[in-house]
Amino acid sequence: MTPRTMDDAAKVLADPTAYADDARLHAALAHLRANEPVAWVDNPPYRPFWAITKHADIMAIERANDLFLSEPRPLLATAAADDYMAAQMEAGMGIRTLIHMDDPHHRKVRAIGADWFRPKAMRDLKIRVDELARRYVDRMRDIGPECDFVTDIAVQFPLYVIMSLLGLPEEDYGRMHSLTQEMFGGDDDEYKRGVSPEDQMAVLLDFFTYFAKLTASRRENPTDDLASAIANGKIDGEPMSDIDTASYYVIVASAGHDTTKDAISGGLLALIENQDELARLRDNLDLMPTAVEEMIRWTTPVKEFMRTAAEDTTVRGVPIAKGENVYLAYVSGNRDEEIFDEPFRFDIARDPNRHVSFGYGVHFCLGAALARMEMNSLFTELVPRLESIELTGEPELAATTFVGGLKHLPIRYSLR
Known about the structure:
GO molecular function: cholest-4-en-3-one 26-monooxygenase activity; heme binding; iron ion binding; steroid hydroxylase activity
Strand content: 5-15%
Radius of gyration: 21 Å
Number of strands: 14
Shape: globular
């Protein structure tokens, strides 16, 4: 085989610290889109992969879910972590969420929770979400005139929504949030529990221990909540396996609030940094749906997913061998100059907005409608009440290659 060369810019994709430096990250991704849109990345301690940075190629791979599979490497992790988790799965102790699965099993498991995120369920939930939005904007007013918007508001609001949907007791919300930070923040010094694969497994075991008790409770005494739907879900007439059940809880409880937190906090920062767009939105709240989509594009909370080629193929003329991995760089696709007019301009009226923040195809985000509704409710409550808002310190981004956004957003504001 001819030795493969690597563009130095491609190294950022296998460097968690790059995702905490927007300027560095986007400069490298713009270079790759223009010069090597299918780029070879070999940057230990990660195993090599092909980075896919163009929107059209990301979409094409997402559509071809029989050719590009989620298993066995659905996201970027170190080689040691990949090996450790594979061994745990063989021992019946790993994690296997919807993002790890392929059809037809994926479709069957996804269906168990799907009804809770359909339009009718969202309409029924909207009154409660609007009430919570008012509560948290009132809280922002009460703790003002300064706060850390991430920790004081952006974390709390979507956490409360998803935990309520699951039917978990309020005293457990903090525990769920801490475990989520440790799981998604395994590369971040502020969030991580430790540096070894065993440390990450310990986080999952804490999740699983909690949800094993919840499953037993909901099977013995079913209630009208999402936790009961998961606990009593069946595949081909049989109860889900313990791993699939616990993993279902983990992905809903963690991604169900953390990604929305990232979009909310990053969306507010974009409004602060673009005061003309904030004024435009305040003057015309009918722009809220497109503003929310632009915030989601702008922040891209889920940075990537990976796929494995089921057979020899090509992407943009580049040969991809069976068994090789491709890295779908959503954060790059969402700034693709061929798709978005002035992609580095924050435009609350951008339409169309074909962002890939929720994925595409069979793995399109189950909770997309809920995330959109939460953001719409919060900003519809917040924006008309804002008299002024500014930064009081430097915003801080998490170091991560998977799910992440702002860790801290110190602001000063005046609220009606």
